[in-house]
Amino acid sequence: IRTNVAVGSIHLKNGEYNIARGFFGTAIKRLTKDYTRPSDCEPLYLQGLTLKALELYDDAADTLYRATWDYAWHSAAYLELARISCLKGDFQKALGQVNESLSTNAINNSAINLKASIQRRLGDFDGATTTLADITEKDPLDFRAGNEIYLLAKAAGNTQKSEESLVNLTRKMRDFDQNYLELAVGYLNDGLYTESEDLLQRFKGKSQMISYYLGYLQDKKGNKSGAEKYFKEASAQSVDYGFPFRLEDVKVLNLAAKYYPAEAKPFYYLGNLLYDKQPQKAIENWEIAVKLNPSLAIAWRNLGWGYYQHSQDVPKAISAYEKAFGLKKDEPVYYAELDPLYELSNAPIGKRALLFAGSNEIVRQRDDAFVREIMVLNLAGEPEKAVEYLNKSIFHFREGSSRVRDITVDAHLLLGKKYLAEKKNEQALEQFLAAIETPENSKSRMGDARSPQVNYFIGLAYEALGSKVKASTYFTLSIDQSIKESNYITYYQGLSYQKLGNKTKATESFNKLIDAGNNQLKQGSDIDFFAKFGEKETRSVQLSNAYLLIGLGEKGLGNTNAAMKNLKKAVELSTSNLWANTEL
User: Fold this and answer.
1) What gap in Å lies between CA 475 and CA 471, rounded to an integer?
2) What are the extents of the domains in the chain?
3) Rounded to a whole number, what is the distance in angstroms from the first to the last CA of the chain?
4) Those residues with Cβ within 8 angstroms of residue 317's Cβ, 6 or more apart along the chain or in another chain
5) For 458-481, what is each residue's pLDDT tens digit?
6) What is the C-alpha separation between 322 and 154, in angstroms, rounded?
7) What is the CATH number of domain 381-481?
8) Which of 234, 239, 245, 249 is nearest to 273 (CA)?
9) What CATH number belongs to 483-584?
């Protein structure tokens, strides 16, 4: 029983009402098998909600009445029964039901507000005012109560009070579309369509969903031309900041799509709404949207997201993202999401560099996109440009942004290596020293994971400048830091041991690298469950890292052919393996 209720609840929350109905039905059948009255009526209450969502109001009412047997669900079930009666226009019956609900939960604002609405509809203005008295005192920001006070004053012919109440309510609602939508949807769920429309008409701004809802309400009144007008108005608005999230929005958008089947935007919005709940259905809606309007870049982007995250289809995801990018090159998030997919597919570095070419001013608007650009510049052999861009940047640090440290160190080390090769030793030293401090932390980062590598290169620069004492100091700093598990940084510790004349420890370091690489080839690596979009390691990347370790170990031992073979294998498996490319 509990399992069926739990699974049914998930489907109910996801808007999959027919599936939920089946699970609740199974739970109810088992629950009532040997008892006239079940001990726990939660499945009956949830089934009532499901049937109401399916607009099977008579079946819903019958089920909800059975749920009222249980004290725990008595108030909630009677509140839903009152709403169903309002939907049917039977306000006298609804009043009795909402009073039953309040008898076991007298401080439920939703029930109190509904009672006031019912009393107003029945012409009992004084009774409605009395009902609302406590709410307005205890919760002055209850918009439903504030709107009811306005409607009561208006219905009673008290123009001054109604105007004052409306001004007060409008100020509190701040012209925020979601405040209006939330309140309007509440009235809709209570079957009070006139109140819902009146409220939405008072919104002064522009909102796609408010226009869609006004079209839906016109259709409910039988005004087809009015519905067409509002649906057309909604779809004419920009999709920017349009992200419906209420399950009630589904039937509204479906109706808009029925009125204008050739219009892409209702399908686009449906995809946005459903993705977290019914991802495959969301993808299908986005596919319809781009078929109807191939120039809708954001729909292509969302398709790319869905193809990768849900369907796990990287080629289709890349194709969709490329279409989005081709339509809108000034959106930095496209760079941040397309490049990781290129990396996953092991695309050539030239192709990835082309993505960012000439787009630095756009890319730097988002840290994640800018980080990807610097990574690609490092891989493409353009550390000068990477360092130039980094020197002009300010990062917004937060959890998960530690990659900034790595790309900055990489850029400085690569540029320093280039200067060393050109005998520009002073400039090389300057770059290596810059790798100690990064924008992530202005204080010295001598103790982090990259320090042994950085200190080795600083030692090299001092050695090239003829300062043997300083060189020895930095080689010693490189070997003094312990590394928990052998990784490519171990290679630079081994080289530091060599520089200090300790061949035994150097050989030990290089052999550890080979052993670690072979173990990774045999065992694989753990999955990183916390990896961000597109950054989970594929098996190819894991193998590439293993071959990098073996290649570096062999290189340190002087086995050139074996080193080149393994490093080439590492690059073949992952063109993004920076230090395999560098040491090859």
Assistant:
1) 6
2) 381-481, 483-584
3) 62
4) 304, 305, 307, 308, 311, 341
5) 999 999 999 999 999 999 999 999
6) 56
7) 1.25.40.10
8) 245
9) 1.25.40
